[in-house]
Amino acid sequence: MQVSSLNEVKIYSLSAGRSLPEWLSDRKKRALQKKDVDIRRRIELIQDFEMPTVSTKIKVSRDGQYIMAVGTYKPRVRCFDTYQLSQKFERCLDSEVVTFEILSDDYSKIVFLQCGRFVEFHSQHGHYYKTRIPKFGRDFSYHYPSCDLYFVGASSEVYRLNLEQGRFLNSLQTEASESNVCDINPVHFLFALGTAEGKVECWDPRTRNRVGLLDCALSSVTADTEIEGLPSISALKFDGALNMAVGTSTGQVLLYDLRSSNPLIVKDHHYGLPIKSIQFQHQLDLIISADSRIIKMWNKDTGKIFTSMEPEHDINDVCLYPNSGMLMTANEAPKMNIYYIPVLGPAPKWCSFLDNLTEELEENPESTVYDDYKFVTRKDLENLGLSHLIGSSLLRAYMHGFFMDIRLYHKAKLMANPFAYEEYRREKIRQKIEETRAQRVQLKKLPKVNKELALKLIEEEGEEQQFSKKRKQKNLPSLLKDDRFKVMFENPDFQVDEQSEEFRLLNPLVSKISEKRKRKLKMLEELEAQGQEEEEEPEGKASDAESSESSDDEKGWVEEVRKQRKLLRQEEKLKRQERLKEDQQTLLKPQFFEIKEGEEFRSFKDSAKKQKLMKKTLEDRLKLEEKLGVLNVTDTTVGSKQATFKLKKSEQQRKQQEAEKRHRQERKSLRRSANHLKSRRGRGRLFH
């Protein structure tokens, strides 16, 4: 059992803890209870109070003996007997249940509205009858005097099914395109339905005419609420003869008196989720409203929050057990939650032992840390002179320190530092003096780089602070304290060059504005050299500068730009004259270069030819190579181009080829001379 407290209201969660699987045998369950402490301490109020996957709706019969719940998967309904604290029966259905109603005092007569437009009737033995409505239904209510079922859904009509005659009656025609919820007042049987347009229509079943119309969407929008889109009605509940609570799809709950068109209270859940359920608790005059995330209990007269609960899983439905403090929820989880709140009322008769259990828990509360204790460390004890108390009953060890009585701590602190009040008084006086000095010019350490820019930023920040105080706006962060711009005031490479052409043209009045800052910077440097802390700004100078600034107009800007341009032209002309003088004075001296081994000197004309050749297009270079015989381009039979070319040989290859050529010529000449000698010798033999 889990205990939580909000606004001093204790809430006991009876379904908290682990649940045992159904397929375990009794012997294994007993063994697990002996081993696991959490399983042994858990409270299983109703055996197997859960669904296979998700539970969607939960209701209690009028006699209080049976609790019925529907869920998935597969679609089914389960009935739990509170006298036996176990499940009585389970019935599977053909399709998922949208909502259901218990018509009798017990479980003998039940009506299910299913998502496939089916309406299914069950009796005590099981399925009894099944019919179908023309449009998809979303909610229905039962009118006891006439035995009529009123169905609302994705249609402008309200379908009526009479259970005494067993036939459909003439439907009610509404102005709404669709209807989401409906309810019938238990006192005078007024029928009300909530539409998708955010309106509530009230009908008299006796005359079958509309008797009232409430525009809840317009009333739900207040100064504190922020909504997106048109709110539709998602929950509706009557309380007595005159009160009605309406829940919207944007998370507001409106409480109406039927005699007025304006709501008494508008309560916002601040989650923007549709209201799923609204219940009334008459003992404490509370309204219990729930969306898929939170259950809120608040006073219907003042709107003050009584308490709230946030389950672990999303909520689908909430059911308050009559005349008790028990609350049950259907969730997006297999287990259905059961809460017991003793402040709302006693426990039901079938679980009266809960009162004794909660009383015992309140009598023996767990040890907690209270506000009348002070946490101190060893260093704090040494400063107070109480280190000798370590190990005594006056100090309770906890983590890295000790807990001690707050009264003892104050006495020891007063004895250790009797002049604490004087120090506090001096600190307050110092703060007041600093506030009065805030308007003076304070010496601030300027950076080494871009001092004038830093001074300009400081002055602009002071002006912005004064402006923001008047307008009550937040101050913007300072560039000098921003790490992203730190390098701009540290690295000399980022120094602003005021003599550059761009700076002088983009800032035509920078000379006049900078004169004031230069004077102020010079004054600050003199004060730093003298070692003074503060010095007020001399009167008269700033006013002159401000008057000169205010007197400049557009003509002054234009004239200043023209002057700067003239100065730049003159400076450029002087620079050109200086360069010409330097060129005339310099004498050209011959320079000698050494050629590397294995290379030959080529004239500068060859390099010039190569540069000209490289500037030409590819087409021109190919034509030139064709003329020289290096490249040959021919057309093929297929239609493409075929190019044959000769690679240019290097200097070494050319020398090697020339040497080989000379060698071949020498060998040829030697062979010729040898053949000539042989022929002469042969002729001489013939003559002999």
Automatic annotation (TrEMBL):
Cellular compartments annotated: Nucleus, Nucleolus
InterPro entries on file: Beta-prop_NOL10_N, NOL10/Enp2, NOL10_2nd, NUC153, WD40/YVTN_repeat-like_dom_sf, WD40_repeat_dom_sf
Keyword match Zinc-finger: no
Nucleolar protein 10-like N-terminal domain residues: 1-364
GO terms (BP aspect): maturation of SSU-rRNA from tricistronic rRNA transcript (SSU-rRNA, 5.8S rRNA, LSU-rRNA)
Annotated Gene3D superfamilies: YVTN repeat-like/Quinoprotein amine dehydrogenase
Residues in NUC153 domain copies: 482-508
A single GO cellular-component term on record: small-subunit processome
Pfam families: Beta-prop_NOL10_N (PF23098), NOL10_2nd (PF23097), NUC153 (PF08159)
Protein name: Nucleolar protein 10
Species per Swiss-Prot/TrEMBL record: Thryothorus ludovicianus (Carolina wren)
The organism's taxonomic lineage, starting at the top: Eukaryota, Metazoa, Chordata, Craniata, Vertebrata
